Amino acid sequence: MTTPPRVAVDDRVPAPAGSVLAIRGGRPLRGRVDVKGAKNLATKAMVATLLGETASTLRDVPDLSDVAVVRSLLEVHGVTVTEGDEPGSLVLDPSEVESAHYEEIDAHAGASRIPILFCGPLLHRLGQAFIPDLGGCRIGDRPIDFHLDALRKFGAVVEKQPSGIRLSAPNGLKGANIHLPYPSVGATEQVLLTAVRAQGVTELRNAAIEPEIMDLIAVLQKMGAIISYEPNRVILIEGVETLRGYDHRAIFDRNEAASWACAALATDGEIFVAGAKQQEMLTFLNVFRKAGGWFDVQEDGILFRREGELKPVIVETDVHPGFMTDWQQPLIVALTQAKGRSIVHETVYENRFGFTQALVKMGADIEVYPHGLQDGPRRVPRRELEQAAVITGPTPLHAADIVVPDLRGGYSHVIAALAAEGESQVSGVDILSRGYEKFLDKLSALGADFDVVR
Ligand code: EPU
Q1: Identical fold at 20-35+252-452 and 39-249?
Q2: Ligand 1 atom closest to Cα of 141?
Q3: Catalytic residue at 262?
Q4: Bridge partners, residue 301, by sequence
Q5: Each residue of 99-110: pLDDT tens digit?
Q6: Which residue has the least CA distance to atom 31 on ligand 1?
Q7: Domain ranges across the chain
Q8: Of residues 137, 225, 334, 364, which has the active-site annotation?
Q9: Planar angle of CA 318, 319, 322, nearest 5 degrees
Q10: Could you say which of 110, 238, 323, 324 is the most buried, measured as most Cβ atoms within 10 Å of its Cβ?
Q11: Rounded CA gap, 389 and 366, in Å?
Q12: Which top CATH class is 20-35+252-452?
């Protein structure tokens, strides 16, 4: 398993401010954090504004680098983005949408995965689109074949170029019958954002049904779209000629909420996650409880802490309503302190255990099986790319110098350093600004003992 290349702690390489932390662990995290709108909804709802004739207002937009990338890419296409009438709200006005210069688009290459979702909306608005090379966490191959196959079914002409993808729709976009090979979140969003203004009806089978997708459907319905959700992962979309702007408050970030819950578990602390809601976290809460966690669902958030000894669990990551792949990394840090053997099967991405190497360096007993475990019947059918991690605990964690590999893995490294005895140096922490708003402020508010080295 390869760990993506990252900048090591090295005086010759200038690091962005807040990228290297000296963390003194062994102190429980206690207090309150506020979780705002989900990264994985807000960025897509921002793209949806391109489809409207009038301005949209998005509320609870998190201050994250992915949001900044999408905002900038919208702006180079002529969308005017201004602050709204309350903190964290944005008004996005698409009335002057125009083709952007290649250089302006290319400046966003490698920065995020969201630009792939500009395809349908730009084809509807301009009849053509150029999408720069994609970025995002290196947690597997992350192909876009489902996206491109779906776009071709709508009638788009897709041309792969050395620095991106050029698309056109010489005969307009028409509704299509699409069966996804896997319920991909991104491909489902691609279909939704394209079908709402395509001519005729689109039937999407094997769709992803994550709460963030349901929230995107709510956004599109506010804009005038006609979308129905049928049993068995089927979504029907009747194309309409025009859409208007929306006013919408983004669904809360369940990935961030789960991360802080695991931080409470791993450091034996107590964290109130304001803004967290139960319905979207049912699966997480079950596993949290089985692992020895205690929670109290309150009107404005959820309180998380340990209840006695941590216990081992067996978890399979899966598409919704299963246990999300983005939750396993912080959970594994807590499981290093559980008495016995836990198993985490990763079924969504093929390279999402690289972060465990740093935990092993800190004293954890984790064995990764790159081709999965052949161990008896499973709820989730085995996928080719599957891997498993076996965590045996409890093992005391000790300080180490570590370099974070990606967003969720990086979060787990910070939590491990906070749970470990001694002072760790954790570098590359700036990547966390992709998914954790005001991360260092929140750590301070929870009583974490750390310095920003640079
Ligand atoms: N896949 C393909 N071909 C495609 C698209 C996907 O083979 O064309 C495969 C992927 O390689 C992967 C699986 O399908 O094995 C699932 O990928 P999916 O498309 O569902 O993921 P995504 O849309 O790229 C979003 C989130 C991820 C989250 C996954 C799964 C965003 C921006 N990203 O990714 O979030 O892990 O869904 O829920 O919404 C994160 O927030 O850190 C993050 C990685």
Answers
A1: yes
A2: 11
A3: no
A4: 274, 298
A5: 888 888 888 888
A6: 40
A7: 20-35+252-452, 39-249
A8: 137
A9: 60
A10: 323
A11: 6
A12: alpha beta
